[in-house]
Structure formats: C-alpha cells, structure tokens
Amino acid sequence: MRRKIVAGNWKMNNTLKEGLELARRVNELLKNDQDQEVVVILGTPFIHLSEVGKLVDPSKISISAQNCSAEPRGAFTGEISAEMIASTGARYVILGHSERRAYYHEDDQVINRKVKTALEYKLHPVFCCGEILDQREENIHFDVIRKQLEVGLFDLNQDAFSGIIIAYEPVWAIGTGVNATPEQAQEMHKFIRDLINKKYGKEISTDTSILYGGSCKPSNAKELFHNPDVDGGLIGGASLKADDFYSIIHSF
Length: 252
Ligand code: PGA
Fold this sequence. Notes:
Bound molecules: 2-phosphoglycolic acid
Oligomer: single chain
Radius of gyration: 17 Å
CATH architecture: Alpha-Beta Barrel
C-alpha cells in the first residue's frame, strides 16, 4: 500500500546523547497524535540505531540506517552490514544518497548490490536518486534519473521491488536552502512513477511511495506534499530540530 512517509536523515550529526534527546522530543510530540497516518522514520547514525530504537514508541516511529555494506559479512574493517542493522530493530536503510555517490564514489552498480543485500535481511531501502545542477541545465535530468533507477533497481523482481521506497533528491537542492519548485518535484515524481509502471505495472507503481528531498522545511513542505505523486519527504537539516520535523509530519 502507498504510504505517506516523512523520514529524517540526520547525516553525521548528533552525539549519542544529543541524538537520544532529539528522538525523545520527536517521540514526545507524536505521543498525543491520534490515528497517526504518516510513517515517521528517523535515519540516525549507526551508533544511535539500537538506543533510539529502544527509546521511541515503535507504533509511531521507525528507525533507519543511512548506509550499509554491499557485502553480507566478513573481513571488511569499519563496515556495517545489513544484518547488523536489522539486528538493532531498524527496518529501513537509506541507500544511494548523493553524498555517498559524490564523496565515497558509490556508483549505480554498488548501490544495486547494497539494495539487494539490504532486502535479503528484510530492510526496506530508501533509494535516493537525483541530478546535479549541470545535468538539469543541460536538460538531461530525466535521462540521469532513468539510468539511476534502471541500474540501481530495475533488475529486482516484482516482489523485491515492492519493498522499496524512492526518494527523489535533486542534488542542487540538498542543504542549499533552494528547494525544487512543487512543479519540478511533481514532474519528476510522475516521470519516476511512469517508469515504474512500465517496468512493474500499474499496481506496483501506484503503491510505491516516492519522497521528495532537498531543503524541504516547514515553510515549503505543504506545497510540495500537495502534489499527487509526492508521498512525503526525506528531510536533512530540518530533521535536526524536533519542532520543525514535527511540523513537516503535519504538512499533508
Ligand atoms: P536537506 O537534506 O533537507 O538538508 O536539504 C536532504 C537530504 O540530503 O536527504
């Protein structure tokens, strides 16, 4: 079923103590919400996963990692496996984020392997795609997204694909304060949904949640989420403030 989702991406922010305090405040704010419709996810650093998971109400908040190894286990010093993440109780993992692509040279093939490893351990990948500014200015942004999806995801079978959440994050909008316009977001989300429709059929494309990410904040979340193909957001900076994050959760 297609769900409304607001996922925080804390990135490399918050000590353990700060992270627990932030999670506690989000949990507190959500406590009085009756019939919470929105799936709320906190994407924390690895070291927070287990303790944040224990602190929050699991019927209101789910936990996500921000990366995982493409390898299942073994001699890979410093890496964290999908199985380890799943063992903390986390249910999601952000994969293919543009910061991983740009700074850690993750290409579509590596991301594809990570997606498959994550699915093997029953984690839901939040698969990020997005073009850089030059690509949009050259008018090749649709081709860029098509390739990221085709290589990153489209060799999955229907059953595996139905475990995926997609986040469209134009790189030029991430952390810049300049968000995509609601029209730009809708146009790309529809393009993505049409690609899924062609590959996996109507039912799966209708059921897939496609999130927008990139300078999404309380002041613009409503107009972005109002679009028919925008099912919520992946939130960086604004997820570090409990009140702002809560306000975005209430922007549908
Ligand atoms: P931002 O980051 O909200 O700070 O732009 C979004 C993301 O990178 O997921």
